[in-house]
Amino acid sequence: MKDVAVEVAREAADLVRKARNAMVAGERVRVETKTSETDVVTAVDRASEELIRRRLAELRPGEAVLGEEGGGVAPAASVEGDADPVTWVVDPIDGTVNFLYGSPVFAVSVAAQISGASVAGAVVEPISGRCWTASRGDGAWLDGRRLRVSAPERLDLALVGTGFAYLAERRSRQARMIAGLLDRVRDVRRPGSGALDLCSVAAGWTDGYLEHGLHRWDWAAGALIAAEAGAVVSLPGRDPELGPDATFAAAPTIAGPLREAFISCGAGEI
Hints:
Layout: H1 2-24, E1 31-33, E2 40-42, H2 43-59, E3 64-67, E4 86-94, H3 96-101, E5 107-114, E6 117-124, E7 131-135, E8 140-142, E9 145-146, E10 159-162, H4 168-181, E11 187-189, H5 194-203, E12 208-212, H6 216-228, E13 232-234, E14 246-250, H7 252-264
Parallel strand pairs: 3-4, 10-11, 10-12
Antiparallel strand pairs: 1-2, 4-5, 5-6, 6-7, 7-8, 8-9, 12-14, 13-14
InterPro entries: IMPase (IPR033942), Inositol_monoP_metal-BS (IPR020583), Inositol_monophosphatase-like (IPR000760), Inositol_monophosphatase_CS (IPR020550)
Protein name: Inositol-1-monophosphatase
Organism: Amycolatopsis taiwanensis
């Protein structure tokens, strides 16, 4: 399943890269909005997902697909068994706003889930070509190099990633939370792609990460990569004190203090 995830994610990333190059050259791309005027979707998002769905139907016929643009049914959590079906969870461009503005920080994310849990996944960056992968129990990898989370000694030495909602009212609450955190950590980063934020924790490029409002396709591959690299990971619905839709990942050495810091700064009220 990991090999399939890599194959289709690479193919979609190639499509996205070519589309971005055409945009840079002056070609216009159709843009629409979803939940708000700041929540955008492009024709390239839809073309990427269509490619992924078509290739998965060829390589893994009969298996369900849940995608950001084309929808589908999320796999139900249950006691996993050999006969449980596979659902592919895909984000055709994670970081669409970055893509639209010309920033290179966006990726294609493809994951296989069984009983609601990710078992294999790939996150491919169209511009750099970097390929992040993981399969359950087999570690996390970046272009063949095994990943391991960082080990900061104290919370005030931790570099923390986050993201913000598209709705202005919620974004304001998130900003207040981060403002309260700033004097407790080394610094805060907001790259704009949840999948790559989770991969950054896996690589030790950041020490922790929290974001509210991620969907399954945002975290399905990245959270597995972070966990397989040794991160403490909490997914939406798992930790009400962080908020019912919070995604959290951190190096074990500061996971507890970082969680408590987020809670004390109002994470549960986001």
